[in-house]
Amino acid sequence: xxxxxxxxxxxxxxxxxxxxxxxxxxxxxxxHKAWHLIIFFRGAWCPVCVQELKDLEENISYFExxxxxxxxxxxDELANLENLVKENNLSFPVLADENLEALKSFGVxxxxxxxxxxxxxxHGEPAYxxxxxxxxxxxxxxxxxxxxxxxxxxxxxxxxxxxxxLK
Length: 167
Fold this sequence. Notes:
The protein is an alpha/beta fold. The chain is 34% helix and 23% strand.
């Protein structure tokens, strides 16, 4: 499993987006000279994840005022993510990582067939990566289950704290 440390350059990735386009992190980073909050979520089937995405959408203006853009990634099927975006009017990128490429390159935990407990089949677990405008890692949190993820309020505090204390 890949291990990223603070100040590491995050891996580049290119994945299909629920809006029908191919998303390239490198191109997005060049177009939007901003921090990015890259969030891995379990899938459209996960009610906690859906609520989290709705909360992010409700708070998007706050994060944009801090020059932070969201990118979300799931190992769920693209068709399910397309429906999720339409049903919830999500404006940020929602990407499908069905081949687990981004998941593996970021070292995100995967609940596979070999997992010690049953949990909605195979899927990636929640993870959060805040990166600066150059793609360097400022913060990360990876979960091995659906619980313990930061709330939108906590993410706001993390962005504020790091922004205030950045060297």
